[in-house]
């Protein structure tokens, strides 16, 4: 008799690749969701879970297909998340922490599907749209943590100095503020998500919330610079160097795109790039925080980790 361990083993490297695919698709759904809103396709499918009341797929309608395409990406994400759960069961050696974090992805995707339906049925209420984006960022955080933990077996031990731990903690909190104020700018701006019917906007002026958002970005840039200098001083770890270098690159690019879009009338293309950049920034911040707070070496036995 063939045992389950013999016909369904999964190496740590193989499982990490599965987690990487899930992370990639989760970031992709954020970008595809932004494309739906920026193209005015938010109500291209006016019903949920079907596109229209009497049909599953849209008619020959560009906006309907853009919205439907975003739903298809959600389906791919669901498959990847299921693969992450099954992979955590098949991985050898088995680890309970990976199983728990993979189930977190399942809970998040279910919440996304339900909240996405509520957004459509409430005609793109801006507060619900912001909640949908916030939940996406929680999912991305979960996926980054899972991918990081899945690579424990191949990562050398590194003990970060206390100053980097403190700075990365402040950076994580400030990044949340930057994301939150950025969504307020978007929710107050001209891209409502629908071309066919009026959609209410948040009760703020773009100029006011943009000033708050811009101020938080300036502080983030200064903090990123402090982390870069501190990492150079306490260098020697390639994982830390890569994380810090990516942080500087993404912060600089994101600030450039953000200020350019503000002074050019927030064109849809630049807004889309800014959303993608915000997702990349959040991933980089989470990854950096994991690197500097993870002082343990390779882990090959079952156990519990506190990554953040």
Task: Explain what you see.
Helix content is 71%, strand content 0%. It has 308 residues and is mostly helical. The chain has one domain. The radius of gyration is 21 Å and the shape is flat. The model is unreliable at 1-7 and 297-306 (pLDDT under 50).
Record keyword descriptors for this entry.
308 residues; mainly alpha; 9 helices; 71% helix
Radius of gyration: 21 Å
**Using DSSP, what is the number of strands?**
0
Q: Unreliable runs, pLDDT <50, ≥5 residues?
A: 1-7, 297-306
Mean pLDDT: 83
- Main sheet overview: none
Give the SSE order as H and E letters: HHHHHHHHH
Question: What's this model, at a glance?
Answer:
This protein is an all-alpha fold.
Give me the secondary-structure topology.
Layout: H1 4-7, H2 12-38, H3 62-90, H4 96-121, H5 126-150, H6 162-188, H7 206-233, H8 238-263, H9 268-293
């Amino acid at each position: 008799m063939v045992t389950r361990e013999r016909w369904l083993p999964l190496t740590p490297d193989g499982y990490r690749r599965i987690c990487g695919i899930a992370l990639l698709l989760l970031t992709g759904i954020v970008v595809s969701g932004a494309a739906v809103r920026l193209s005015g396709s938010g109500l291209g499918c006016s019903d949920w879970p079907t596109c229209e009341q009497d049909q599953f797929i849209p008619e020959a309608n560009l906006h309907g297909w853009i919205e439907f395409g975003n739903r298809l990406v959600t389906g791919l994400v669901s498959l990847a998340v299921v693969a992450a759960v099954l992979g955590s069961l098949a991985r050898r050696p088995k680890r309970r922490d990976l199983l728990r974090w993979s189930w977190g992805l399942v809970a998040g995707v279910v919440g996304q599907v339900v909240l996405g339906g509520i957004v459509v049925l409430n005609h793109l209420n801006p507060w619900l749209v912001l909640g949908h984006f916030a939940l996406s960022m929680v999912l991305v955080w979960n996926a980054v943590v899972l991918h990081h933990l899945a690579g424990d077996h191949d990562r050398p031990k590194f003990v970060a100095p206390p100053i980097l731990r403190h700075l990365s903690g402040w950076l994580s909190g400030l990044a949340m503020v930057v994301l939150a104020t950025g969504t307020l700018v978007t929710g107050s701006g001209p891209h409502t998500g629908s071309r066919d019917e009026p959609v209410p906007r948040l009760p703020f002026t773009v100029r006011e919330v943009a000033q708050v958002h811009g101020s938080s970005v300036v502080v983030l840039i200064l903090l990123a610079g402090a982390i870069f200098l501190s990492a150079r001083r306490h260098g020697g770890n390639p994982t830390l160097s890569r994380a810090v270098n990516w942080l500087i690159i993404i912060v600089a690019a994101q600030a450039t795109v953000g200020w350019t879009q503000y002074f050019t009338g927030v064109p849809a293309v630049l807004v889309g790039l800014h959303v993608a950049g915000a997702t990349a920034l959040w991933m980089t911040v989470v990854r950096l925080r994991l690197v500097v707070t993870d002082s343990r070496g390779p882990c090959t036995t079952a156990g519990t980790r506190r990554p953040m």
